[in-house]
Amino acid sequence: MMKDDFHFSIRTDLAIETREMVRKEQDVEVPGVKVTVEEQKDKEITVTWVEIMNEEGANQMGKPIGNYVTVESPLMKENDVEAHEEIIRVLAKQLVKIKKLKEDAVILVVGLGNWNVTPDALGPKVVSRIMVTRHLLAHVPEQIDESVRPVSAIAPGVMGLTGIETSEIVEGVVEKVKPDLVIAIDALASRKTSRVNATIQIADTGVHPGSGVGNKRKGLTEETLGVPVIAIGVPTVVDAATLVNDTIDHIIDAMINEYESSNKESDFYKMLQRLNEQEKYQLIREILNPYVGDLFVTPKEIDAVIDRLAYIISNAINIAFHPGIDLKDINRYK
User: Fold this and answer.
1) What residues does the annotated propeptide cover (predicted)?
2) pLDDT confidence of 206, banded at 50, 70, 90?
3) What gap in Å lies between CA 8 and CA 22, rounded to an integer?
4) Regarding the domain delimited by 3-236+302-333, which CATH topology (the fold level of the hierarchy) does it fall under?
5) Which residue ranges make up each domain of the chain?
6) How far is CA 106 from CA 126, 139, 228, in A?
7) Is residue 117 within a helix (H) or strand (E), and if so which, with residue range?
8) Contact criterion met (CB below 8 Å) for 264 and 147
9) Which of 89, 179, 243, 301 could be bridged to 106 by S-S, CB 3.0 to 4.6 A?
10) Are 104 and 83 in contact (CB under 8 A)?
11) Residue 32: which of 62, 72, 12, 10 has the closest Cα?
12) Would the pLDDT of 8 be above 60?
């Protein structure tokens, strides 16, 4: 299997995971890629910046040149209001950092996904919580604080519901609204089960709807829309092969630890050490495919978790792009 095949055979939308896989394969830091990690251990929050700096890095990662910021916390999916408020502040800080805007910048928030399918409903749910102000600034500007930017929002649905490509709808809206920035929210796919519903990725390279589950559509990027696009996504599913692969990895780790603790070596132990990651994953997919096809798995509590994630992301956007507004103001508005 060629290296490029490996990048695309293991399904993930997260740059942090792609970097981990390439780095593990080559056993060195990925050329043309810069990584910065910040941890708040007391709050269980990790922020990782993956910057793809040149064409070499883009080719190695299979992603466009740009910045990919990952905010991780297992508390995202828990019913912990204090933790969520801290995650909102951290996420808002990263949004401000990744894209500097003028004070009167017009922003369009696009909630991608199918509101009838819970794991894919993140985008529409975020849009329903956005502090929409464009119409207020147009009709009653004297009643609106100067720190409030003109923000509009749309949930265009999916082609199966509308018969229209999402990109065509968004292109039409952009042409009429003429925003300075588009923020697109979408559900993603992850390589690791531990990151499902516990990771938020921000990217300044745009988004390709459906790419994580192998359903590629025309991208929403600066090239296609004519304005900068920030993509915000959360992995809400993993494919069945990933789930089985992770389970086997845990079993292998336990068996290796047992052999090491007993100071024994065997042919089986040596075989475990020689297992190739991409070959193992491909073997699992080939075995599963006749029985389950391209099956994707999501946690049983997904309804409540999606609501929590929508609350976190929408309020981070509200705070980041309305200077001078805090959570208390947002909650009063909503």
Assistant:
1) 1-13
2) very high
3) 12
4) Rossmann fold (3.40.50)
5) 3-236+302-333, 243-292
6) 18, 15, 12
7) none
8) no
9) 179
10) no
11) 62
12) no
4-9 own/partner pairs: CB under 8 Å, 24+ apart: 4/62, 5/278, 6/278, 7/61, 7/62, 8/62, 9/278, 9/281, 9/282, 9/285
- Residue 26 binned pLDDT confidence (cut-offs 50, 70, 90): low
Question: pLDDT per residue over 275-309, tens digit each?
Answer: 666 666 666 667 666 666 666 777 778 999 999 99
Instruction: Enter the tokens of residue 168.
Output: 């065509």
Give the residue among 150, 49, 161, 159 at the shortest CA–CA distance from 109: 150
> How far apart are the C-alpha atoms of 208 and 191, rounded to whole Å?
17
Distances in whole angstroms, Cα of residue 29 to Cα of each of 57, 60, 99, 292 = 10, 11, 26, 36
The H or E element spanning position 108 is strand 107-111
3 state SS of 217? coil
Among 159, 91, 151, 144, residue whose Cα is nearest residue 127 = 151
Q: Name the residue with tokens 């922020």.
A: 47
CB 87 within 8 A of CB 71: yes
What is the pLDDT, as a whole number, of residue 326? 76
3-state class of 121 per DSSP?
Answer: coil
